[in-house]
Amino acid sequence: MGGMTGGQYLLAFAMLVTGSINTISTKLADVQCVPTKISLDSPSHVNCDIVHTNSTSAGVCPAGCTTFNHPFFQAAGMFIGELLCIIAFRATLLCAASKARDTSLVDESSEYSEEAGLEEGFPPYIFALPALCDMVATSMMYLGLTMTYASVFQMLRGSVVVFTGLLSIIMLGKKLWMCHMVGMFLVTAGAFVVGLSSVLGHDGGSAGAAKPSHPVLGNIFVVCAQVVVSTQMVVEEKFLSRYRVSALQAVGWEGLWGLLFLSIALTGMYFSQVGPDICDGHACIENAVEAVLQVQTSPVLMAAVLGNVGSIAFFNYFGISVTQTMSATHRMVLDSLRTMVIWAFSLVVGWQDFAPLQVVGFAILFLGTLIYNELLIIPGVGGGEAGNNLIETLVEDDEVDGLLEGNRGGNSLKGRR
């Protein structure tokens, strides 16, 4: 990242911090102790913060309390954060319009003026299907996060490149070159090693570290969610390639659609007659009303939930800014550093033990991602010819940078959590 300006370093640092906060705040909410019996009619007076340190380090909650287990509610917070990107998009347009009044900056702001002119050039419903995929994937990932380690969760999200590559062949008719095949193989191997490390760590870890409830099942949920994420990315490329859509605008619209879909889903989950939760005396899938009340009982939990909402909005904004002012390569490397930050934080706060096998798995994952995205050229594997003939989609861990339309006139990059 040599030759970067002070402003670019600041953007990179902001993206790294907000991206790390997003996963950390979500996991922090998962380990908070909250009252088990609370409703609008009977608020709880149980003090669940008396063993807060132990709840974080060893998964222990006092009598009458349990951990905050509302992955679908947290997914709704993520969509609220994405929706906030609409505000950033509008602010960008206002700044561009202000600059355009200065004749010396007309050329510099012409791109924003063009985006402003194209604001109504696409039907908003084209974001509905990608948002539906995003809702399913995010809910599955957050559900998996309640069962496994935060660092493993972040690393396994890198397996999205495998499913994206396969679906690109099936749905988009793309050709994968040797570098993509090798990269996909290494990512698969790395994901397997990371998953194995979480299982071995769960069985033989120290008594001080937090033990996830079901690491194998949680890992399966996270990996399966990447199938849905890859479907979302392929759908976005197929549907959105005909339109010029601002990255922030695309994120905001998907946040709106996703929040709408998830609100309907949460309503259905509340009135369902089956599930692990209790809603107004009957079994249900998730009690969102209880989640809201539980958040109000804990300042730490409230800060974690708000951190999830705010960090996803800022992460998308800073990530898109990094892509625009530097490159998608910088963004991918920073996202890999985000995984390291989350892993280091998990070790410091006692969410997991140090696992050498996890380091090996992450190294393999990172190497496979570099080769897949043609950022590392290995003799015999190639990559240069592929770069000239493929419309490449750079894939992150949460996530993809967006749509790169080099040969078709280009769509803007879409940020991700």
Short description:
This protein is mostly helical and 417 residues long.
Describe the structure.
It is built from 16 helices and four strands. It is mainly α and 417 residues long. Strands 1-2 form a two-stranded antiparallel ribbon. The model is unreliable at 50-58, 103-120 and 384-415 (pLDDT under 50).
List the SSEs and their pairings.
Elements: H1 6-30, E1 33-35, H2 52-58, E2 65-67, H3 71-83, H4 85-100, H5 110-117, H6 128-145, H7 150-156, H8 160-172, H9 178-204, H10 215-240, H11 247-271, E3 277-279, E4 282-284, H12 288-297, H13 299-325, H14 328-349, H15 356-372, H16 384-389
Mean pLDDT: 78
The largest sheet has its strands arranged as: 1-2
Query: Approximately how much beta-strand content do the residues carry?
Result: under 5%
| Helix fraction by DSSP (H/I, runs of at least 4) | 55-70%
Model regions low in confidence, pLDDT < 50 over at least 5 residues: 50-58, 103-120, 384-415
**Secondary structure tally, helices:** 16
Shape: globular
Order of helices and strands: HEHEHHHHHHHHHEEHHHHH
Indicate the structural class. mainly alpha
What integer value in Å does the Rg equal? 22 Å
User: The biggest beta sheet, please?
Assistant: 2 strands, antiparallel
How far apart the termini lie comes to 22 Å
Total number of strands: 4
What are the salient characteristics of this protein?
globular; 4 strands; mainly alpha; 16 helices; two-stranded antiparallel ribbon; 417 residues; disordered C terminus; two-stranded antiparallel sheet
